[in-house]
Amino acid sequence: MDRLVLSIMLPASRLPEDVDQVSNIGDIATEVFLSQLQSLLNPVHLPARFAADVRPAAVTAILLQRDGVWWLPLVQRRLDLPDHPGQLGLPGGSIKRGESALAAAKREVEEELGLPPAKLRWLGCGEIAHVAVSNFSVLPFLAYMPSGAAQFTPDPGELDGVLEVRLGELLDESLWESMSDPRLGSCFPCQDTVIWGLTARILRDDLLPRIRLAAGPA
Known about the structure:
The chain is α+β, with helices and mostly antiparallel strands and 218 residues long. The chain has four helices and 13 strands.
């Protein structure tokens, strides 16, 4: 069985003093890690319980590995979109009437990334996160791409592109920063942009802690 290796691969100036704090997945086989992670998530087919007066939506965090390095792709939304223009986010969108949250997540992955959902192993989902300013309530799913050689075809009508972020960096708490307005929470500088808002909250407060737990103690 292939070994699961989480490579940090940060510039020397950004390496934490104790790299093992964020690379503790190294000795766990991929299948064992994914099974443990799945046990820490809500079942993928669990009916989502949205409040009656919200705008329900679903997003997907995709884990993939390439040459031993783990990545998480984010989409760069177009500046002219009515919702979350220009932001980095997880692929996803509104849940249509009569559609399940999982069906919406799968549809959006294919529409936004050109990625057939059957290529993904759907591990489970986190907790619903609400955004008061837009009244969106969003259920995040977590999926694994076994091939690790994703060929994304971003939808030009919605996206400016796809940015893959090293999972090892996202797991490193020292690389997260506080927004100037404390009410906006934390953000993650990423190349020439930043992960903030709902996406940052879903990752840092919900999905990344589950990944750490699945990896075991440092």
